Amino acid sequence: MTRIRCIAVDDEVYAINMIADYIARVSYLELVGTTTNAIEALNLVQSGAVDLVFLDIQMPELTGLQFLKICGDKCKVILTTAYAEYALDGFEYGVIDYLLKPIALDRFLRAAQKAFEQFTGVKQLPAKQLIPAAAETVPTEQDYIFIKGDSKNKFLKIDHGDILYIQGLKNYISIFTTTQRIITYQSLRDIDELLPQPPFYRIHKSYIISIAKMRMVDGHTVYIGDQAIPIGESYQESFLKIIKDRT
Question: Which part of the chain is the Response regulatory domain (predicted)?
């Protein structure tokens, strides 16, 4: 069977872990490395050790688009990013596919199929048949996130079920869980893109809540435990519709 040698390149460790996990579920993909350093990845490509790169666009030192310009036709690339506006630029460089974060497993499998077809010229089985039997019991959606810790290369794993709500402040966020408050220097937008809807909803420019942990809605306020959280005016109509649809 054709084996496509892959690397995952991203400056966020949680994103690399997700891609590596997905690659392990596909029989014809072989993970030969992961890195947070685009220059290191470029050296691997130029050595001939890599067939396919899962590449983040927003990278320090060397952006994904700069990477594409340099590597040319030495490998195939699937872009991974949270920013849809770069899609057109990517396809101008002949990328196989463009995956928007957070990446669902079924969407990843469709991109893997495209890669298989480009490398072999052979149509592949339906995506649902590409997952090895040993992985069939693994949930298709992660039920946790990783956040940056208080030192370099330190990351904290937080289960979705433990999160009550998240508050965005000037340059950092506070994550309130069932047992603790965690502060991290990440944006509320970044966390919002990682969390599934439902159960998480952004109800204010400064707040994301878990609807599963919500005790009551009263007017323009959500209550989680004893904490009163405001519903922003621009979010009120869509959020109240969610509540009404469940009554």
Answer: 5-116
